[in-house]
Amino acid sequence: MAFTLTINGQSRNVEVEGDTPLLWVLRDALNMVGTKFGCGAAQCGACTVHLDGVPVRACVTPVRRVGTKAVTTIEGVGSDPVGARVQEAWKTIDVPQCGYCQAGQIMAATALLTAKPRPTNADIDAAMNGNLCRCATYNRIRSAIKAASGQEV
Amino acid sequence: MDKRLASPSRRLFLQTSAAVGGGLLLSFNLPASGRAADAAVPSRLNAFVRIAGDGTVTIAAKRAEIGQGMKTTLPMLIAEELDVDWAKVRIEQAPVDNAVYGDQWAGGSMSTPQEWEPTRRVGAVARALLIAAAAQRWGVPAAGLVTEPGVVIDPAGKRRLAYGELVEAAANLPVPDPQALTLKDPARYRIIGKAHPQSDNPAIVTGQPLYGLDVRLPGMLYATFLKAPVFGARVDRVDLAPALAVKGVRAAFVVEGGTALDGLLPGVAVVADSWWTARKGRQALEVVWADHPSPGQSTAAMATRAAELARQAPQRVMRQEGNVETALAGAAKVVEAAYHYPFLAHATLEPQNCTAAWTDGKVEIWAPAQDPEEGRALVARTLGIAPGDVTIHLTRSGGGFGRRLMNDYMVEAAWIARKAGAPTQLIWSREDDTRHDFYRPAGWHNLTAGLDAQGALVAWRSHAVSFGEGDKFVRAAEVDASQFPARAVANHLQTVSTLPLAVPTGWLRAPGNNAFGWVFQSFIDELAHASGQDPVAFRRRLLGEPRALGKPGGWDNLDTGRMRGVLDRAAEMAGWGRAIAKGTGLGIAAHFSHLGYVAVVIEASVGDDGTPVVHKAWAAVDVGRQILNPSGTEQQVQGSVLDAIGSTLRQKITLENGAVVEGNFGDYPLLRFAEAPPVEVAFVLSDHPPTGLGEPAYPPTPPALCNALFAATGKRIRTLPIGDQLA
């Protein structure tokens, strides 16, 4: 089937089966490989993207359900000022170890800071608990979220 | 002059590189040194340094990057001795070629001890060449010249030349003997010892292609590979038509495979225009698997058999000192305990994957791998081609933890791509990854210790039940009989019995130590409490006077003074002995592995529902006199501690009817954000060469946690994971 998606502000046409998860549309049909595959079951958060600003797991989101919602991925989140601040904090605080989960972490953190510009520790716990980091960079993720929100690290 | 310069091909290479690149390209073998100081560095090293006319320096990172940071740290060593501004450095992953680069694998926390000396000499050689070029230009002796970052200076003549202006001339000069050069005084370091973020961070945070799964080739197809749930079972029959009927599926075929668990195993491949389509094709398949010689393996049966073996005379003696039976008979107090730890999976977040493309009987491979040369050998052997016809490109790895020291997924991709007749990316599902790992072996330890009337440890007897046959252990199931308190207690006996195993096993972060550290440091804690002694004081007493327990440089050469140093520091950091709320406990453990010393203190309690809550962790670390990159080293410690907390709390791999039960993160849970405590890290600098830190902070963590929970609840954890044992 043909679908027209709005991804990072651009209109993209794809020809895929309607049950294809958005993750594989991005990765295999559009060669946008920044969004990662970790579990395929919404258990790790590596595939987190935004639909109209809301973080969702692309690995369990069939493309036919995306409709006209704006898709934002790690490749595009930096054009949002909050996303850019989060990326900058991630770099300077040196959050990544292997880095594989960090696209999803950044998407989750950007959604959090957009909704709550100065999150508490409890807010951060709640927003980030669905994103696994196998290298366990959790201490630095917290620091980076605080830095990006102008709070003391 | 270095005799290797007699080699015309090398000389030609240097000149050609200079002509093509417009810069200085250094590729040279460091001679095997006869000096005693280098005896612990078994490999030779080669490296690339390229300097563009504008002063930009490109440094090749030779080792596999799996999150341990060596892609940044090793170039730091070169840049320091080369004397350049770190902001001018660009880093490239080196091609895989051990003949040129020496060891390129990542494992065993070995990169730092192996590379510390030779990699700095790579930079020193490049700097010497640039100085020599300037000396020639100015007609002055090289000895009178100095450098500042990126510039050669003639202090007498008050002249300067940028490296970029010297590269062409430098590339044509003879390479000096690296061992003859004097390395920089650490007091003058500008780069080493300063925190530098990973060089790939800008690409990581913007989602640029870096990992194995990100490889894209023209005309590339995607593959899944369905293997038998029972390890090594053959395909008896399968109807491929339902898979081929799925729109977008290009091929489906049986891979005959072999019986070696670390080689190409039998299965059914489905190749399609997207991975999702390939997966659909695979789900349409019904495969009948042929019987396997050992289909019935189960962890429950293994536990029963291990318990039987524990009651029998041990099969083998691994280490014996003094007379443990006499000492136990005369002891004022005898303590016995049986410990068990489970199989574990690696669960790298990037599932195993590999991309392969064939041209004229040669294969090019893109892989996240920890030991690519072993992969090349496996591919060549299995596919029947020459190793020289296998080209491997290392991608960044989305985690390693020892999993990618094995190259099963690489040989699968090579095989499937050849049969598919197109460049193919093989991707394992998460369930494939969990059910076809090389597992950390389970084990059982049966311990007996004797204390005298003064509370001194006088006898230690350990009967380990592990996996193997005869005098051979299966991979990573070796019983290391040098583990502390061996050699610190007069009467010591380590014995072993083995069970056969037909499940693939492998190295997981701090192999052996990740289990033994928990068993021995937990039991030492039991002995302290049984004799009414403070766990820190008891350990200090056991360590005794500072002394080395093994041979210099050896992996068993525990230095009790260094261990005491981290023990004291961790206790101090955590405020050991302070008043603490009822129901909350502090636990401590200290362990030596991979040449590093780490003591960990954990503060923990148990929630109303029986769930352990870890409040905080403190880690004191001694990995020598110089921390290479403080940002990366802190990360390795925090990551190891939290990794170990996660596995201790909930992780286990269960075998039933020969197959692994767990499949995804629902039943193989990793530590999550909200349960990760802050981990405070301190380094104890000691006058020893720097050593690695990918592993040493893991082993003391599980016992520190269980010891803390004992202090909090009075319940001793002797079986891992903790699970709901405290509910």
Short structural description:
With 153 residues, chain A is of the alpha+beta class. Chain A is 35% helix and 15% strand.
Could you characterize what this model shows?
- The complex is a heterodimer of chains A (153) and B (727).
- By secondary structure, chain A is of the alpha+beta class.
- Chain A has five helices and five strands; from the N terminus they run ββαβββαααα.
- In chain A, a hairpin with a 2-residue loop joins strand 1 and strand 2 (10-15).
- In chain A, helix 2 (81-92) crosses helix 5.
- The radius of gyration of chain A is 15 Å and the shape is globular.
- With 727 residues, chain B is an alpha+beta fold.
- Chain B has 18 helices and 28 strands.
- The longest helix of chain B is centred in the N-terminal third of the chain and has 28 residues, at 111-138.
- Chain B is globular.
- Classes of the chains: A alpha+beta (153), B alpha+beta (727).
- At the A-B interface, helix 1, helix 2, helix 3, helix 4 and helix 5 of A face helix 6, helix 8 and helix 17 of B.
Topology:
The complex is a heterodimer of chains A (153) and B (727).
Chain A: E1 2-7, E2 10-15, H1 22-29, E3 48-51, E4 54-57, E5 70-72, H2 81-92, H3 102-115, H4 121-128, H5 138-148
Parallel strand pairs in A: 1-5
Antiparallel strand pairs in A: 1-2, 3-4, 3-5
Chain B: H1 8-21, E1 24-26, E2 49-51, E3 57-61, H2 70-82, E4 89-93, H3 98-101, H4 111-138, E5 146-148, E6 151-154, E7 159-162, H5 163-171, H6 201-205, E8 221-227, E9 235-238, H7 241-244, E10 249-255, E11 267-272, H8 275-283, E12 287-289, H9 299-311, E13 316-321, H10 324-329, E14 333-341, E15 353-359, E16 362-367, H11 372-383, E17 390-394, H12 408-420, E18 424-427, H13 430-435, E19 443-451, E20 457-469, E21 472-473, E22 491-499, H14 513-530, H15 535-543, H16 560-574, E23 584-593, E24 596-606, E25 612-622, H17 630-650, E26 655-656, E27 659-660, E28 679-683, H18 701-713
Parallel strand pairs in B: 3-4, 8-18, 16-17, 20-22, 25-28
Antiparallel strand pairs in B: 1-2, 2-3, 5-6, 6-7, 8-11, 9-12, 10-11, 13-22, 14-19, 15-16, 15-18, 19-20, 20-21, 23-24, 24-25, 26-27
Helix pairs in contact in B: 2-4, 4-5, 11-12, 14-18, 15-16
